Amino acid sequence: MTKLSGVFPVLPTPFTAENAVDEAAFRRLIDFAVESGADGVVFPGMASEVETLSAPERGQMVAVLGEQLAGRLTFIVGASHADPAESAARAREGMAAGAVAAMIMAPPQAGQDVARHIAYYAAVAEAAPGLVIMLQNAPAPNGAALSPEAVAAVAAGVPAIRYVKEETLPCGQHVSRILAAASGGLDGVMGGAGARFVLDELARDANGTMPALELADAHAALWKAWQSGDKAKARRIYTETLPLLLFQMTFRVRATKEVLKRRGLLDHTGARAAGPKLDAGDLAEIGELIATAATCMTMHKPR
Q: What is the mean pLDDT of residues 239-250?
């Protein structure tokens, strides 16, 4: 398998006005990810409202993703579950659709016990032969918030773990510490946290980022600029997009969907996830923030 690197946006789950999963809209978002210049995609994750999807809905959308991509981009399937057998089943479901790896969150119920995490991931790997695992280290309460050294120790104990998605703060420092503790034993560490710290992470040798989808073209351009040595351009894109990303930190998927709607990529912004909804003032403010970031958008200019 080619080493995974670059921009891998996490796809949201669009819903119809009747709150059903919207397959047609999902296909449009997949095509946008491809056209944006992203290096791959991830689904489902926390930015996909995964906790609200039924098993049949999840399976349906993973299959649609593989079909619509048709090999045009690499994809990583989200396969987190407290039960390693369920996690393995979700990983196999993704592999059947063409996923090259499974992103699996370090389970919070294992706490800081490295041995328990190793046993969990080893059980997943045993039940899904050939699986490449990306260990997702997320903050509490959703994740275990493992220390960087614990992340490296878990990876060392489970050969199937080749990548880490690091989302605990301070992200940049943790990328450095994981890479140092792993001593070359990983194929890469990617940043998360909505790309709000992406330049610090890249400066510390992160091999990519996994933001939400709404600025995929801007993030792809930032990555290409950084890789080519044009750090000034990367800094400009970061500076112009960061205010919108900070707004998204509060409103999460609802902000993502509002931006995608204004870019003509979604008709409905309905969300099942818990969290604050945008009021009239927020809708006015997000319009100003979109305008600030619009120069970094290479397609689907906001309306």
A: 98
